[in-house]
Amino acid sequence: MNKKMNTVLFVIAGTIVEVMLAIVFILTFFYILNSLEPMVGDKIGTFVPLALVGGVFLAMIVYQRLSRWVIEKYGLEDKMEPLFRLRRKPGKKKNRDQ
Predict the structure, then answer these.
(1) Buried b (16+ CB within 10 A) or exposed e, 28-59
(2) Structure confidence by residue, pLDDT tens digits, 22-68
(3) Smaller CB count within 10 Å for the chain: N or C?
(4) 97 against 50, higher pLDDT
């Protein structure tokens, strides 16, 4: 397989893992909200959007760290294409005075 195919497969697998992480964190936050309902009462509905956003946000953070760890642990830097390319070469800087 070539580098582009490896990158596509990594991104697809990573997306599946991130969705599963988001579902797990959202369900965990809902469980916590359910256990807090007797104390909070009817105002528990205001925390549901926070649980959704918090679950997705936490899943994104965990996915970033997990993917970085997997790439470093298995040495995948040289087996995949970079997702974002620099527009300029790192060694050449434009001088504004010229």
Answers:
(1) ebeeebeeeeeeeeeeeeebeeebeeebbebb
(2) 999 999 999 999 999 889 888 888 999 999 999 999 999 999 999 99
(3) C
(4) 50
